[in-house]
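Marked as duplicate of an earlier ticket. Keeping the data here for the record.
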Amino acid sequence: MGSRAVRPGLLAAIYSKENGAEDASDVFLAGPTRPFGGGVIITHEVAGPMRQFLIAALGLFLGWDALWWVLGVRPRFPWQLKARLDADASDLVLLDVRTPLEYNWFALPGAQNVSDLLATSGKMPPISPFQEVVVICMTGHRSPLVAYALQKRGYARVYNLTWGMVGWKVYEWVSQLRGRRETPKTKK
């Protein structure tokens, strides 16, 4: 068939003269491969629009974060929150605005699930306006709305967990890959 041999199950850039690829530079991504071929070849015809879509999605994602930063919602990156939690901050309040189902998948220890804060009639837990509050959601796209509303209600030290629990999990994973002894913990 003309394809290079690769181990089964790997994502690999496989090309084949029979499939119209001149060399590996004509291939953007190949799907899971099998010992006798069967990989999916994506050439520049497909890769161009896919690349444009990914760039546009990344632009929207970063633009969303930048919008809230401009509006005054301060970011708290996962590594910053980890350092703050390690410092045993007694005045730190974690408000998790994810749905109860999402919250039950994984959550930070001590986080309060207050999914109704996204609604205008959401009940605020008893928190002093001077306590540090970190608002958490799954991807960092719901929590800025709540953080902004809390700032408008007079809470002075409100932060948004940038990239949400997905960012926290990625940070946890990267920390484990780097071999750090202490990794961020979530309750399961």
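See parent ticket for discussion. The chain has two domains: 1-65, 71-177.
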